[in-house]
Amino acid sequence: MIISLDKCHLPFRTALIILSVVTLPWLGGCNNHSETATHNDHAAAHDPAHQQSATPPSETCRDKKPSEDAVTTHGKNVILLIGDGMGFNHLRAGSLYRSGELDAPPYRDFDVKLAMSTYLYGGEYVQGWDAFANVKDGATDSAAAATALACGTKTYKAGLGVDCQRQPVDNIVEIAEKQGKSTGIVTSVPLSHATPAGFVVHNVSRRNYEEIAREMILDSGVDVLMGGGHPWYDNDGQLLETPESYQYVGGEKLWHQLQEGAVGNDANSDGVDDHWTLIESRDAFRNLANGPTPTRLLGVPRIAETLQQGRQLDGDGDYGSHVTTKTVTPYTVPMITTVPTLVEMTKAALNVLDNNDKGFFLMIEGGAIDWASHDNQSDRLIEEQVDFDRTVAAVCDWVEQNSSWQDTLVLVTADHECGYLTGPGSDPRWNPVTNNGAGKLPGLEWHHTSHTNSLVPLLARGAHAEQLAQRATNADPVRGPYADNTDLLPVMQSVLAE
Ligand SMILES: [Zn+2]
Q1: Model pLDDT for residues 50-77, shown as the tens digit of each residue
Q2: Where does 12-496 sit in CATH, by number?
């Protein structure tokens, strides 16, 4: 099947017909333009001998129905998981590493599997299957992409929560807060970085970190905010003699006030200030997975930027050149044990947010997928992707144990692709990521050190998931039906409005 449809808008019925026949293209394609058409590693991917993952995430999403005796919340919830820089091949690489399968749980169990365009204001998606370099033009950045996802508005690079005229646009956090919902933002990179910021603030530039952090902490109604950027620790989680920078947490004075527990505005409009409870240690994150919680939680792990991606404890102190010149096995460099995983942060966030009977909105970002991709670090990409995949699985578990698929919409997508990741031997021909079995680094090839305008994955499961499929009115010859990043806001709104 070859569909030449870039830029055209199909009638809804036609889109549904296409949707019904493009399940395989989402997995990798069944036509001669496909990345996966030229190799026969599908067979190896389904070899049971490869299915025992060295680092399997929870697989309880599969086959599990909401149990009748489970204590469930009845508010309507939206949980949006964003893999920053995560293209189709990033997702597949993680799946192959975890299980030796292209489409392993938790993603296998999602009802709606689409592609999504991510271009900037004034741009367009131009498919690059016949011209290898096409998608290097017109790529967005995390700020503009977060604005499109959170506000439904295309904007310029670096713009956060503002349109192309630099005017503020309501975001999903503000919309949810007005409805009496709780809201949360969790990221594996600094909490005031572009993706989390794009869901909370209105600022003309993503680079105004201190200002952005202050707006998030002092002015927004967010109830849970978690991310890196600790002023007193380096990227190995080691305590510094003097702090590096307070910019990610809103400045030195605000940091000290946060430590004293004396900061907080009226987040839920009841006339009473809601002070932040600051947590930093891994134990503090873990202890909040169950039981009583503070009403408002600020989690800043003891790390300078990313949870794990920036660590250098490989013995030679020269990680950058180390990985660009050698193939390194994931997890060879010991993990930092003093910072929480994205799963641990997510569990604590959910435990706070589910106290609200009206429901909540939560955005979780696997932010360092992008950082590993900029540096073309295949091993770190796998580590970050697997951490993200485990978080998606943990979210599915939470839905089944504490809510239901009728009450909660779970979305998984990316803000853009990064690194132009393919299988080996590509350019000009596209080759698939090759399967070397579970626990083994898949065959990967990088073609760029920045973002591309490629389509990215969009998966949905639960309440109103079918609405996204209806919005996928364009089709790509390889990726199949695709929606746009501005299509998520109305669907998320429709869930929260119930
Ligand atoms: Zn990036």
Answers
A1: 233 333 333 333 333 334 444 555 679 9
A2: 3.40.720.10
